[in-house]
């Protein structure tokens, strides 16, 4: 399966494989940690609508946004337990089950959006996705969405590695996100997504890092004065379906679900890509200081760790990723 096609046509929504019927009409639970204003939530709602429509009401999907069924680590656990059926999860969190799945969530492993697209359309990623399925008892990465390029927010500019020194910065609770602040002398502080706004407001942490769409959706700009465009991680969100749920669907309905999730993952990718092109000016219009950043000094500081052999992916896998093209 090809996972992305940002500027191409969406995958066909339905593939009728066999005449098998579903066991019963039921409801699937689709849980994630993103705010209702985020493009990923809109895509999840559209997936719910399309799945019910294309299964002629045999199945419905209820969407649970904004950590309402738990934090991201709990959702990953629930997927394996069968308490949730579909989740969005970052590749860094997927890496807790299968290390190589996290590779592109490590800083500067992807050069640009074209490189991101090349990877997720490659046989290399198909192998990684199969490794994840094997490690999780069959949980399937059906689709991948572009989540955005991560940037640092703080109450000061962050223009060089020296500006990161001793900065107490919130990061997600996954190893991929700790490397960048550690390499630059900051103090990484793992914290649940739902707790970040208050922690910034109260000064529990000095800074955080996220894509522009998330900074807007979570309103972090209300409690941080500066956005520095470090672009240190190119993020991906996996749509993952529980093996427990897949076993309860007919071949026909599995194919419909895969098609719907591919289609709506593309919807989210297009929306996020478009928003990134507009948000720098939007933040400036809100009075936020947005700083262009020379990424080269940051890349130089981080580079030795990426080939150290101490990360959850091999230097050979990393080199295979680097060998993929980043232009048409």
TrEMBL record:
Statement: the UniProt record of this protein carries the keyword Signal: yes
Coiled-coil region: none
Pfam families the UniProt entry points to: DctP
UniProt-annotated location(s): Periplasm
Signal peptide: 1-25
Keyword annotations from UniProtKB, A to Z: Periplasm, Signal, Transport
InterPro entries for this protein: DctP_fam (IPR018389), TRAP_DctP (IPR004682), TRAP_DctP_sf (IPR038404)
UniProt xrefs under PANTHER family: PTHR33376, SIALIC ACID-BINDING PERIPLASMIC PROTEIN SIAP
Protein family (similarity comment): Belongs to the bacterial solute-binding protein 7 family.
Name listed for the protein in its UniProt record: Sialic acid TRAP transporter substrate-binding protein SiaP
Native species: Meridianimarinicoccus marinus
